[in-house]
Design goal:
The complex is a heterodimer of chains A (about 170) and B (about 280).
Chain A: H1 2-20, H2 25-34, H3 37-50, H4 59-66, H5 71-84, H6 89-93, H7 97-105, H8 107-125, H9 133-153, H10 156-168
Chain B: H1 3-22, E1 31-33, E2 36-45, H2 57-66, E3 71-77, H3 81-93, E4 97-106, E5 110-115, H4 130-136, E6 140-143, H5 156-161, E7 164-168, H6 178-188, E8 192-195, E9 210-214, H7 219-227, E10 231-234, E11 240-242, H8 250-253, H9 266-284
The chains are: A mainly alpha (about 170), B alpha/beta (about 280).
Amino acid sequence: MRRPLLLLFVFGCVVSLQASNRLSARLILDGIISFAFIPFFEVLSLAIVYRRAPRRVPLARAVDAFFVANAPWLVWLLLFVVVRSVQTPVQATAGPVWWQVTALLSLLPIVAWSLYIDLQFFRSIRAQGRGAAAGDLARQRLISWTCIVAYFIGHDGTTFFQLFTGWLNV
Amino acid sequence: MTPARIVSVVLLAASVAAGTIADRPAPRTPLTLGGYRVLAVDFHTHTSMWSDGSLTPWGLVIEADHQGLDAIAITGHGQTVGAYLGHWYSRRFGGPIVLIGDEVLADNGFHITAAGITETVRYGGSRGTAIDDIHRQGGIAVVAHPFSGFWPAYDAKKLQGLDGAEICHPAIYGFDEGQHELEQFAARAPVAAIGSSDFHGIGVMGLCRTYVFASTASEQGILDAVRARRTVVFGKDGRVYGDPTLVPYADRLRGRAPASNSRGGSLDWVSRIAGVAGLAGLLCL
């Protein structure tokens, strides 16, 4: 479980640097607690998908290997804190629109990169039916991202859903 | 462990130690002006509990203390659990006053924050509008970030029921027209001037804040002051908004908030660079 813990520690550091532009134990711990739901849902979704077919490695080892796919996200977060470390509070709180758009667009290659790593992971652990790895990945992503987004935005999700269905005129 | 990794861990540990030692609450001396207690309040904050924030409810209270705020409203999206936890923490362990709040997206894009309520805002049917329910609960209704994209939702009737409108929101620093748009909205709505940081964890809590001129340093005192429009807010480039009779006190309030354009001293820089380098080493080596 080293890698899930490392991910949480990085989350804590990002939260601390974002809020105060320094690494404070208080804020790191708070960030760890706040974002513990992400590795929790990732492990949960992996365990659910894992039970569907025979596997080559035990779940505990698979969990650690699975979190290798977070490397792209960690690199992105690292770049994020590098930028934050040279910003003033005003710049950090409300960057110009072009900066916000750039930050969002920079997530696209990260998503693709982590998808590729995850696909390799599911191919490597399946005892048979290598072609089904993409299905495993899709199921795992659907479960984990749905839970993560639902937890993170909470009730506002229903509001977004209402706005979206209203926009679609459904 | 390789020597490079050991160096990374040492750098990171030194940075955390330095950052933790330097992490002290902002000095906060009680201020009385014109016979009122002046309280620095952030009316729009989010926790990480189902409210797309980055800090726990208790972490939010502690951070407010560190940013020199006397009170915050915790405004979850359609829920008050985080606010109640923060409220409990503040009463149990001390800290800024916490107002129970809710950020409501209602009635076709009508976007308001409630503060001083007792339960999640509900509206429609016999309950009337969201504003009606906020007032029924004894709270105040503040328009959240009324930039031009939100204007169509506010007709004359809705404007009449409001208690405040944000005249300072961090987004004003992100695009040139932002402050002007909030000023235009304020001209339509003769309500209390409010500064809120809409804090989600990105940036600094209390970057925009409201100086409330309250009769007492209490939840009720804050709510009554907003209803009476006894507020002063600093906007972009230090412009001052609020009650014309209180604006002359603005010079006494300048400098009470932590500097918004400072990257910290040289020790902060060294500590930060060491921390980021240590983190990079830990991840890459």
